[in-house]
Amino acid sequence: MKQLSVDVAVIGGGPAGLAAALSAKAEGAQKVMIIERNHELGGILQQCIHHGFGLHRFKAELTGPEYAQRFINELDDTDIETLLETMVLEITPERKIYAVNSEQGMMEISAKAIVLAMGCRERTRGALQIPGSRPAGVFSAGTAQRFVNIEGYMPGKRAVILGSGDIGLIMARRFTLEGAKVEAVVEVLPYAAGLTRNVVQCLEDFDIPLYLKSTVIHIHGKDRVEAVTIAEVDDAWNPIPGTERVIECDTLLLSVGLVPENELSSHAGVKLDPVTNGAYVNEHLMTTIPGIFACGNVLHVHDLVDNVSKEAERAGKYAGRYAMGTLQKPEKWVKVVAGDNVRYVVPHEISLTEPVEFFLRVQRPQDDVIVDVGGVRTVRERSVRPSEMLNIKLTPEQLQNFTGDTFVIQVKDRKEAEQSA
User: Fold this and answer.
1) What angle, rounded to 10 degrees, do the helices at 64-76 and 305-324 form?
2) CATH architecture of the region 124-256
3) What is the pTM of this model?
4) 329-346: per-residue pLDDT in tens?
5) pLDDT in tens, 27-62
6) Per CATH, the architecture of 2-121+259-324 is what?
7) End-to-end Cα spacing for the chain
8) What are phi and psi of 419, to 5 degrees?
């Protein structure tokens, strides 16, 4: 078995892994390595040929491959080592990585710090338990995206899309532009799960119907999908008898959520958040295993790749400091708690001594609100939506005003909050 030693090992060569590796190198880590299972860097961005990336980071509207290439170009100017077509099999709490590829065979890589940047995967039909046979024509939205944008194949001619996540919305437009007919987008929630701009640009601009509070209850067809039955649902997501409707189609795309790829993390003993399915991290983005950091969609599913890059740069910076022995350990950690109408907050612990940046999502849509950040800062928002992540920064000076035992972040109705004050 080949044995290697590095300062910082980054697992995953997508947008998070690229940004983390460059940041660790800029922080002073001497030997940085990216381990990527695909044959090229860039991750999921390589199949996202639509525009809308980089508006925050580069002040330019880029496609996914263009966004990735900007980081790859930066990488080319460094001595960061890249192992492509390399599968990581195991990570140990002692920061040993066991990986394999066809060129070097089995490898044991000892790292002073590890950054987890494996991204996420799509939920499948098996997770939904939709009744019916197993005909051809049922795809996850991301798989269909790869077929169309990279492989050059059209999965079908008449499609129904279950779920209004961003990938599903984008594929509704993509199918339409390629000449297919999108019969409907069906969403179990009472609101669209994707970004508002995607609802407008991908559905409304192409007159594609969106059925809310509805779901697919049966898939028809033996060899190929012939139709699906949809029905309205009640507040408990149970189909309402009498609301069934059959839609003829040859393709069903599933856009029903993303799950962080954390099998390696859990096997290494990293504590996972049951809400995000990502790692439990402190403000340095270090997990519960010393020297192992997490960022990007393996930590929590993001809405914008710009936020992925921003978060990954922080993880890479602190991983670089840890590897060099310069990361200061605070005297105590304060637990961060998700309060009213907050689904989750990252990070889960803060020190109150350094600038901190929170990423959070709400549980339900709400208009004209105040986000109370630990009682030390309030942020007014005209509206909050589960599909749109909130990003709030605090300075050490603001954190000095905190006096409690747990740092609670909550969303309040603005008028009620002002009256009670």
Assistant:
1) 20
2) 3-Layer(bba) Sandwich (3.50)
3) 0.95
4) 898 999 999 999 999 999
5) 999 999 999 999 999 999 999 999 989 988 898 999
6) 3-Layer(bba) Sandwich (3.50)
7) 65
8) -70, -40
